[in-house]
Design a protein that fits this description.
279 residues, two-stranded antiparallel ribbon, 66% helix, HDOD
Length: 279
């Protein structure tokens, strides 16, 4: 099967709901469904989280990060941690569990290495997106955080399914098809399965379109700008010969009386704390 046909099949299967997620993400997906319930309570969420140590640890880590805890008052229980970060941030964290664990689905060491690098890139983009939303574009920071976490979800799913289509990640035709329509086709289907908010889905369409408005103002612009500023690139960009090859992005903006450079510098600890919560 050629690369475009393989990508179409992966996307079609995903669109039908035939998505292969890691078996140990069941609790995270149940938390997502619980958050959709209008009668959702923190008590019911705590019971679910107690059965998923990794997600529980992420919730506590995020609640105690500089971004959510600038005063330095530590929290050790899940109920208060949920109250501090809010349901929107919890939704983003549950998505991060699903996305992160996709990288372990491939038995190919080379594919796992690509996925690990892709997750490193993702943590930079998600953390920067939250900061940029708060300080630059004035968008919802939690929506930006969610968008950053899932912005490469199609790529993670591609890597996780590559073993079923030998040679899929090794051929130039795959990468050409992927950076054409393939990424959007697969990404839309996986986002739907993750029940991504409409605002995030719209931002992803802007990302796939690739046009960054100046000055940046929308959630999509926020995501694009974070992607440009991330010091670690997507490894798929390198495979597609679209890499910056280590060259820093020279981009400056004036936001009120501050420059983008100064905002990034003074918020470095906040960004790092978010990355650590996702690590």
């Amino acid at each position: 099967m050629d690369a475009p046909s393989a990508l179409e099949r992966i996307a079609a299967d995903a669109a039908r709901g035939d998505i292969v997620f890691p078996t140990h993400t069941d609790i995270a997906l149940r938390v997502q469904r619980q958050l959709d319930d209008p009668d959702c309570s923190s008590e019911s969420l705590v019971k679910l989280l107690a059965a998923e140590p990794l997600l529980s640890a992420r919730v506590l880590s995020l609640a105690n990060s500089t971004a959510y805890n600038p005063g330095g008052r530590s929290i050790a229980d899940l109920k208060n941690a949920i109250a501090r970060i809010g349901y929107a941030a919890l939704r983003a964290l549950t998505a991060s569990i699903v996305v992160r664990q996709m990288q372990g689905m491939s038995g190919n060491p080379a594919h796992r290495a690509i996925a690990a690098r892709l997750w490193e890139h993702t943590t930079h983009v998600a953390s920067l997106a939250r900061l940029l939303a708060r300080r630059v574009t004035r968008q919802n920071p939690d929506a930006a955080f969610f968008a950053g976490i899932v912005h490469e979800v199609g790529s993670f799913y591609l890597i996780s399914r590559a073993a079923a289509y030998p040679g899929l990640l090794e051929g130039d035709h795959t990468l050409e098809a992927w950076c054409g329509d393939g990424e959007a086709l697969v990404g839309r289907a996986v986002l739907k399965a993750l029940d991504a908010p409409a605002s995030v889905a719209d931002a992803m369409e802007v990302l796939w379109g690739g046009y960054l408005a100046m000055p940046p103002s929308s959630l999509g612009d926020t995501l694009l700008l974070a992607n440009e500023l991330a010091p670690v690139e997507s490894p798929l960009d390198a495979l597609e010969s679209m890499s910056r090859k280590g060259m820093p992005v020279e981009l400056e903006l004036l936001i009120n009386d501050e420059t983008l450079t100064s905002i990034l510098a003074e918020s470095a600890d906040e960004v790092q704390s978010l990355r650590q919560a996702l690590a």
